[in-house]
């Protein structure tokens, strides 16, 4: 006689209130990217030829390689994570070998590494700096304060995660994440960038799985 | 000047001030009434030569009201002075000691921001740490720490 | 009744038609953190500065009323995050003073060693970021920055092997410290200290032989002694203005009276004087670390080891104001305890908060470029300013 198979309930994360809250409140990236009509008509033209997709895929791959090898972060150090971010930019854990040159002006940068706690006074400033960055842009939330409010989550003035203010692509956990973790996060970001878009459109979410 | 001499001087000038019992090496702790607050601060700066302004803060004792605490130091004689005043229940006004100690400027702004204490005579009393349009004074015991503020929290 | 003068405002002669309000916003290249200075300029001269802070206000004081004495020290590190153990030190000593808890000698020596190593690490970061601001990231300022960060990484390696964390620790507990030194740590520490000592001389020569550095730093941002005491600045700012006051010498705590060290005092009061004070403090800290390592006593590392639950430490009713000499000055913790496991009220006297309050008094009259030099020499850390 076989022993009874235990009924393990399927983990339903819907019960976890914080994740439910996150679902409703986090910012999502806007659809697509802004292209000029000339670019759209050219890609349209290339696709109309048989095998034209090879050209655009190769072009995409080249552009993605160029984009990921030269991501310029805007120096947005807020708190303790900024010190670890500076250590990552410095000599031992060099990010310049990945092509990342920290650049103070948001107008010339691709990446915003939000390192530190965002509070209600700082949130509009952060949003303004993010909006000043030209597309395509990415955001990395560094540290537990930027991920979810961190140790200060229950403070009256702390935003529960920077993803309530801007859409985030990579979350790096830690308090503060040591430079190795941040480098890991930046390499994951580079992977994301290399899959950035195929033929001008982002991947549609699959309604069965996602 | 020693700590005991300082206590004697205070007792002579301010008969109604309550001076706490001496703790070895500890600061001189004096409680005065709010109407003697600025006079005592000036006395501390001139006669006790406590010219170093360390901090100013408040404690919310719920029903008993707010209490202001100031720490001054005489760096030459190594005397620490804690001056306190209890602003009765429901009172949140106090004279400002910014004309006497410039360091009280930001500290009083922070006490206004956190406790709602209005300092009469302060040159520029506005919020310092919280946003200018924030409602409420967080460090009061009646304010909940996890107060929501959609959409940020 | 003495009256102190209002913050300085400079009135210039010509009609004032060139008055410009410039915002040095919360995000700017000078690597200090979230600070906003609204400058009123007449041409290139700063006439008035309004320092807006609060962009990093993280509700420390309210949160401390909800966290126990065992939980809070790791949050305390996040006030002065560059020299994190200083803040923990103030909080833990305040609780120990009210509760009359003894700290064993070995723990006291370990606290001294880690505090002084934190001071060294903090000053290395200060020097690096100050020179980065003065020189520009791509313009030569990065030289000293990279060198200093290289040394700082060695110190952080020491902390990583001792505590497990590089930047923010929970090393101090009420009653002692949490971890004991691993094998070989003392030897590595001595080697690191010797290495840093030899390199500081190199940086000093690099900077002091540079005429641009000297021109930008001498005579800039003079703080008079009277202003220094009135506003309540502390640390290298106070000692650079001629006041011989160091808490390690004036109110020795945690066995500091066992060590021999000089307290540097300069009378000029300008940025160069503060720089000299910090450079001498480097060497004195390394001297203290060597002495403490030589005489490290055996014994327990805590009088309350083996914490079983976070609410275990109860401090009886009382209050205390305890201060330590941090890298930036007097970091103090005013603690009001009510007999339970959580404080009733805790106030951080942040050194940088009082230090930053000096800006409206000394900046007017200088050029915009000097604002950066002054900010760097004041060395604020915004975790302490905004708490």
Write the layout of secondary structure elements.
The complex is a heterotrimer of chains A (210), B (153) and C (387).
Chain A: H1 17-25, H2 37-48, H3 52-68, E1 73-74, H4 80-89, E2 111-115, H5 123-132, E3 138-142, H6 143-148, E4 170-172, H7 179-194
Parallel strand pairs in A: 1-2, 2-3, 3-4
Chain B: H1 3-13, E1 18-19, E2 28-32, H2 37-46, E3 52-60, E4 66-74, E5 79-87, E6 93-95, H3 104-115, E7 118-120
Parallel strand pairs in B: 2-5, 6-7
Antiparallel strand pairs in B: 1-2, 3-4, 4-5
Chain C: E1 19-24, E2 36-42, E3 45-52, H1 60-64, H2 72-76, H3 84-99, H4 105-135, H5 141-162, E4 172-173, E5 176-177, H6 185-208, H7 211-217, H8 225-231, H9 236-240, H10 247-250, H11 271-294, E6 318-325, E7 330-337, E8 343-349, H12 351-356, H13 359-362, H14 368-378, H15 382-386
Antiparallel strand pairs in C: 1-2, 2-3, 4-5, 6-7, 7-8
Helix pairs in contact in C: 3-4, 4-5, 4-11, 4-14, 5-6, 6-11, 11-14
Keywords:
heterotrimer, A: 210 residues, alpha/beta, four-stranded parallel β-sheet, 7 helices, 4 strands, 38% helix, B: 153 residues, five-stranded mixed β-sheet, two-stranded parallel ribbon, 3 helices, 7 strands, 26% strand, elongated
What does the model show?
The complex is a heterotrimer of chains A (210), B (153) and C (387). Chain A has 210 residues and is α/β, with parallel strands linked by helices. In chain A, 38% of the residues lie in helices and 7% in strands. Chain A has helices at residues 17-25, 37-48, 52-68, 80-89, 123-132, 143-148, 179-194, and strands at 73-74, 111-115, 138-142, 170-172. In chain A, strands 1-2-3-4 form a 4-stranded parallel beta sheet. Chain B has 3 helices and 7 strands; from the N terminus they run αββαββββαβ. Chain B has helices at 3-13, 37-46, 104-115, and strands spanning 18-19, 28-32, 52-60, 66-74, 79-87, 93-95, 118-120. In chain B, the strands form 2 sheets. Chain B has a 5-stranded mixed beta sheet. A two-stranded parallel sheet of chain B has the order 6-7. Chain C has 387 residues and is α+β, with helices and mostly antiparallel strands. Chain C has one domain (20-381): Cytochrome-c3 Hydrogenase, chain B (Orthogonal Bundle). Chain C has helices at 60-64, 72-76, 84-99, 105-135, 141-162, 185-208, 211-217, 225-231, 236-240, 247-250, 271-294, 351-356, 359-362, 368-378, 382-386, and strands at 19-24, 36-42, 45-52, 172-173, 176-177, 318-325, 330-337, 343-349. Classes of the chains: A alpha/beta (210), B alpha/beta (153), C alpha+beta (387). Chains in contact: A-B, A-C, B-C. Chain A binds chain B through residues 25, 120-121, 123, 149, 154-160, 164-165, and chain B through 130-131, 138, 143-147, 149, 151-153.
């Amino acid at each position: 006689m076989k022993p009874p198979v235990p009924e393990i309930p399927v983990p339903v994360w819907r019960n976890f209130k914080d994740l439910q809250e996150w679902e409703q409140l986090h910012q999502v990236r806007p659809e697509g990217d802004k292209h000029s009509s000339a670019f759209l008509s050219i890609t349209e033209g290339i696709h109309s030829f048989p095998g034209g997709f090879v050209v655009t895929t190769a072009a995409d791959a080249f552009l993605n390689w160029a984009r990921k090898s030269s991501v310029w972060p805007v120096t947005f150090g807020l708190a303790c994570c900024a010190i670890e971010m500076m250590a990552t930019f410095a000599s031992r854990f060099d990010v310049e070998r990945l092509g990342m040159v920290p650049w103070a002006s948001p107008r010339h940068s691709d990446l915003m590494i939000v390192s530190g706690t965002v509070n209600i006074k700082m949130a509009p400033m952060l949003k303004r700096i993010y909006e000043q960055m030209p597309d395509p842009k990415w955001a990395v939330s560094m540290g537990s304060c930027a991920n979810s409010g961190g140790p200060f989550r229950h403070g009256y003035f702390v935003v529960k995660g920077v993803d309530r203010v801007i859409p985030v692509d990579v979350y790096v956990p830690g308090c503060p994440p040591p430079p190795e973790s941040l480098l890991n996060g930046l390499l994951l970001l580079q992977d994301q960038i290399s899959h950035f878009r195929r033929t001008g459109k982002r991947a549609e979410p699959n309604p069965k799985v996602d | 000047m020693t700590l005991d001499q300082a206590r004697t001087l205070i007792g002579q000038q301010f008969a109604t001030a309550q001076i706490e019992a001496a703790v070895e090496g500890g600061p001189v702790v004096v409680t005065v009434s709010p109407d003697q607050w600025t006079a005592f601060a000036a006395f501390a700066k001139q006669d006790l030569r406590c010219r170093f302004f360390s901090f100013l803060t408040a404690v919310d004792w719920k029903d008993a009201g707010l209490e202001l605490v100031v720490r001054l130091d005489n760096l030459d004689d190594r005397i620490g002075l804690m001056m306190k005043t209890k602003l009765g229940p429901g009172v949140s006004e106090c004279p400002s000691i910014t004309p006497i100690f410039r360091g009280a400027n930001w500290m009083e702004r922070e006490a206004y921001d956190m406790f709602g204490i209005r300092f009469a005579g302060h040159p520029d009393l506005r919020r310092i740490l919280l946003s200018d349009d924030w409602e409420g004074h967080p460090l009061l015991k009646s304010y909940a720490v996890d107060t929501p503020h959609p959409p940020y929290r | 009744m003495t009256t102190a003068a209002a913050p300085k405002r400079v009135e210039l002669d010509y009609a004032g038609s060139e008055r410009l309000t410039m915002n040095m916003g919360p995000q700017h290249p000078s690597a200090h953190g979230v600070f906003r200075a609204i400058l009123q300029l007449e041409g290139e001269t700063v006439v008035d500065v309004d320092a807006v802070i609060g962009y990093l206000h993280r509700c420390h004081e309210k949160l401390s009323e909800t966290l126990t004495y065992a939980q809070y020290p790791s949050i305390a590190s996040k006030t002065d995050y560059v020299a994190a153990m200083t803040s923990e030190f103030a909080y833990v000593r305040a609780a120990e003073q009210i509760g009359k808890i003894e700290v064993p000698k070995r723990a006291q020596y370990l606290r001294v060693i880690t505090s002084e190593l934190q001071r060294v690490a903090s000053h290395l970061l200060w020097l690096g970021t100050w020179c980065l601001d003065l020189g520009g990231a791509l313009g030569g300022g990065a030289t000293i920055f990279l060198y200093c960060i290289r040394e700082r990484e060695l110190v952080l390696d020491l902390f990583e092997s001792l505590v497990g964390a590089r930047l923010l620790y929970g090393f101090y507990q009420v009653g002692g410290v949490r971890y004991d030194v691993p094998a070989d740590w003392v030897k590595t520490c001595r080697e690191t200290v010797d290495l840093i000592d030899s390199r500081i001389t190199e940086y000093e020569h690099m900077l002091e032989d540079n005429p641009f550095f000297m021109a930008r730093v001498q005579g800039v941002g003079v703080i008079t002694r009277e202003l220094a005491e009135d506003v309540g600045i502390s640390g290298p700012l106070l000692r650079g203005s001629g006041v011989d006051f160091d808490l390690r010498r004036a109110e020795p705590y945690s066995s500091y009276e066992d060590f021999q060290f000089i307290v540097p005092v300069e009378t000029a009061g300008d940025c160069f004087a503060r720089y000299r004070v910090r450079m001498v403090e480097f060497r004195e800290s390394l001297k203290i670390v060597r002495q403490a390592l030589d005489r490290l006593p055996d014994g327990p590392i805590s009088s309350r080891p083996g914490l079983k639950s976070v609410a275990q430490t109860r401090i009886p009713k009382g209050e205390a104001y305890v201060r330590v000499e941090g890298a930036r000055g007097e970091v103090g913790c005013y603690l009001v305890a009510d007999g339970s496991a959580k404080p009733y009220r805790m106030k951080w006297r942040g050194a940088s908060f009082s230090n930053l309050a000096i800006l409206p008094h000394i900046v007017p009259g200088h050029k915009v470029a000097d604002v950066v030099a002054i900010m760097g020499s004041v060395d604020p850390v915004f975790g302490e300013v905004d708490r």
